[in-house]
Each structure stands twice: as C-alpha cells, then as structure tokens.
Write a structure and sequence with these properties.
heterodimer; B: eight-stranded mixed beta sheet; 11 strands; 18% helix; globular
Chain lengths: 190, 195
C-alpha cells in the first residue's frame, strides 16, 4: 500500500527557506543550513537511512514553485520515477519532460502518483502542496527533518491552514548529526 | 551560573495557543488540546520528569501578556520563587506576592540569575522568549512538541530578526508507545549556541 509522505527540512521555528528565496537562491539567504544533513559528503548512519527511504519512493508530487526553483531536477528527481507537478497553469515548454505530468487538483494528483508508485511510497515536497494535501485529507505521513536552528524569518512550512486540528501520531524519531528526523502519521478522523 | 530556560508547549506547526486567545480564553479556541500531556505531570515517565524539573526552578521570567492572562498567578507561580515580569509599562498597583516588574531584558536576566543561585530560571511566554532571544540571554529551550497541527493560533517564534540562532539538541524524551495518543508529546531540550 502506497503512502503519500511529505519530506521537508524545517528549522525549529518552522521555516523551510530563509528570506529572499527565489530562482538561483532556492533556500533563501544562508538557508543552506536546512539541507546540510542531506549533503552527500555527510551522509552516514540515520541520515543515510532516511535519505535512502526518500530515494526509494516510487513517484514524486511537488508544487510548481518548488519544481521550478529546482529547475525541474532536469526532469529526473531520482531513478526516473514519475513526477507530478501541482499547478493551476500550463507549463512552459522548457519545463516539460517525459516523466513529468502537470495536475491541477491535489486529490487527483496524489491518486495518480500513488497509482504510478505501485507498492512504493509517494514523495511529497513543497509547503503549498503539503498544505493543500493536508487540507484535502490526502496526506498520509510527514517526515520532518527538524534542524536545530532558529532562522527568525523566511518561508514557513505550515501557513494559511484552516483552524481545524489535524491529529498526528509520532511513528519514529531518529537523531542524526545536525538533524532530528520525526516521522508522523496523519490520524484519520474519528 | 543559573541557566535561563524556556519551557513551552508547542504544536508541530509552531502554535502555543489556538486562534483568538484573550483574557476570557487564554488558550484560544480549542487550545487546551496542547496541554493534555500535563495529565501526566505527577506520574513517572518523561512528562512527569520534565514537569518536576520545571517546578524545581528557582525563579520565573514571564512576559506581561502571559502574566496577565494567567491572572498573575495570584503572585505565586510555584514555591513562592521570585517572578520577574518583563513589561514596558509598570502597573500602578503594587505587584502581588513574589512578583517584580522589570523593563530592561538584560537587567531581568541578570536579576533572575542572581536570585536563582545554583538553580535554574524558568521562562514562560512567547513575548519573554523572543525578548530574551533577541538580547542573547536565553540559554536553553525545553519544548514540549505535541503531535497535532492546530492550523491557526499564536506562534511561539514570531517577529524575530533574520539572524540565525544555532542550537544543539541536548536531550530528547518521548512518551512511551503505550501512552494514550492524546497525551503523547516529545520533550526537546536545546542549548543556544553562542559563538
């Protein structure tokens, strides 16, 4: 059974990018500290374990903004798995690749990604996509890489959400160098 | 020297109250969800341990807002320890019990360290936490992170300057799996890194 799992690095104060994030500066000013744990040169132990899980997913669902900031990963996030981009607008010709599909509705996008992933999980990435998926009740798990830093300002992971509580269950906590990996399952209602 | 340590309960999405917190509803709408873990405050286990540690501190620093919303704790937060209330406007009426009003955050930190001796100082409230962080006077953060997304409310970390504050996770305690879901919490203790 495929799960839609959000993977995001977040500062303790809730930011996923420092101020002034944009093209050529995807993590914002000095925002790189959020992703240092995943740098290939540092990967060992639990950080390696978590990164291996991420790279074992069978499809990717990503927001348009995140996708374009990453230059679409050249059309291949990892292993050529299908990439679904959540977007209300038609893509630029330069952002089209065979493995990339554009979908406007988050619920359909998750379903398509799960179908494509088969037995594997779906990697969900991007704050807006996460918020939409949570609000639609179609996100299964959150893998938050909690970084021991206060950025003070930047782009938040959780923003503009409705005031409805979403209950979570901590499935796993792994202490890695420079990061605490917290894996939560979204508890279904009732 | 006494450690000045923030103790706050926070949802995974960073809220310390539900929306529309006020004097009549200090925790905001449905904000009491955050404090279910305190049902275990007198029991063995991580939540009991953290609560006992908090109640063993020898001084309290609070922001004015938290202080007023808590009805000034009737002048006694715990064990009659000195309570330093950070405020821009010192009230006209005399402070109750062991309360002292302080307008300068560094002076507040220095006074609380002095009275705490070889004990620790508990900080409570987002306003006091932010003021101490900005002044470089917060030593540690003990955050009780509750597995819920509140969606809206008052944030613990807000209005901070864009200067990175590096932390070290020095302790993590998680409630046992057998605990009821509503009382699950992860207690994270961070030390503020100073260059």
């Amino acid at each position: 059974m495929s799960n839609a799992v959000l993977y995001m690095s977040m500062s303790l104060d809730g930011f996923i990018a420092a101020p002034n994030d944009g093209p050529g500066n995807g993590l914002g000013d000095n925002g790189h500290c959020l992703h240092e744990w995943g740098d290939a040169g540092h990967l060992a132990g639990v950080n390696r374990e978590v990164m291996d899980e991420l790279m074992a997913t069978g499809a990717v669902l990503v927001g348009r903004r995140t996708f374009e900031l990453a230059d679409g990963w050249g059309g291949d996030h990892h292993d050529g798995v299908p990439i679904f981009v959540l977007s209300r607008h038609q893509p630029d010709a330069a952002m089209r690749w065979p493995a990339v599909s554009y979908v406007s509705d988050v619920t359909s996008a998750i379903q398509m990604a799960k179908d494509a992933a088969g037995e594997k999980d779906v990697l969900v990435h991007g704050a807006v996509t996460a918020q939409l998926a949570l609000a639609a009740g179609v996100l299964d798990e959150l893998q938050v890489h909690l970084i021991p830093v206060l950025l003070g300002q930047g782009r938040r992971l959780f923003e503009d959400m409705p005031p409805d509580h979403i209950e979570l269950e901590l499935l796993r906590a792994l202490d890695g160098p420079g990061v605490l990996h917290l894996r939560y399952r979204v508890r279904s209602e009732g | 020297m006494a450690i000045i340590r923030l103790y706050m309960t926070m949802s995974l999405d960073g809220y310390i109250t539900g929306p529309q917190d006020s004097v009549d509803a200090p925790l905001g709408i449905d904000g009491f969800r955050l404090f279910n873990w305190l049902d275990r405050r007198n029991d063995p286990g991580p939540s009991g341990q953290v609560f006992t540690e908090a109640m063993s501190t020898r001084a309290v620093i609070s922001g004015r807002r938290t202080y007023e919303l808590a009805d000034r704790w009737q002048g006694d937060h715990h064990n009659g320890v000195p309570i330093f209330v950070l405020t821009h406007d010192i009230p006209d009426d005399p402070p109750p019990g062991s309360v002292r009003y302080v307008t300068d955050v560094r002076e507040c930190a220095a006074q609380s360290r002095a009275v705490a001796g070889d004990g620790d100082v508990m900080v409570h409230g987002a306003g006091a936490a932010q003021a101490l962080l900005r002044a470089g006077q917060l030593d540690e953060l003990e955050l009780h992170v509750v597995p819920v997304l509140l969606g809206q409310g008052r944030r613990l970390f807000d209005n901070l300057p864009p200067d990175h504050i590096e932390l070290n996770l020095i302790r993590r305690m998680t409630t046992p799996d057998v605990e009821e879901p509503a009382r699950h919490v992860i207690h994270l203790r961070y030390r503020v890194h100073r260059p």
